[in-house]
Design brief:
Helices cover about 50% and strands about 10% of the residues. About 0% of the residues are buried.
């Protein structure tokens, strides 16, 4: 008796989606699956765009202030940089290094005794985690 009740319940669970009198239509089923897949793809694209937006800052937010040009002009003309000793650190594989220009400006203004240190690394080495 219990076995027959479980068998009947299982059959009802399997057949719950079939409407009596309707025949299974494979084309409709395929269309529904295609719509589901398209909806999921769209949802994933939207979520990926949100993640990308959250993890990728706007290039304007990456600019330094003051700009390099403003810094060079301030160092040459302003005279506020009055530090007795300056250590300029260069990295051997830094393609955007401007330490030579900085040293020249500081030397020409006699504002600081400039010393150099050369280390292995790239421009972002000081902020990298190894």
């Amino acid at each position: 008796r219990e076995r027959s009740r479980r068998k009947k319940a299982r059959k009802e669970r399997e057949d719950w989606w079939i409407d009596d009198g309707d025949k299974y239509n494979e084309e409709e089923d395929d269309e529904e699956w295609e719509e589901l897949v398209e909806d999921l793809q769209e949802l994933l694209k939207e979520q990926a765009a949100r993640v990308k937006s959250a993890l990728t800052p706007d290039s304007k937010d990456l600019e330094f202030s003051p700009s390099p040009d403003m810094l060079w002009k301030a160092l040459e003309k302003d005279g506020r940089y009055r530090v007795p000793k300056t250590l300029i650190v260069q990295f051997d594989d830094d393609t955007i290094d401007q330490s030579s220009k900085l040293a020249q400006i500081l030397h020409s203004t006699n504002s600081s005794d400039v010393h150099f240190a050369r280390l292995r690394g790239v421009h972002l080495t000081p902020v990298s985690v190894e």
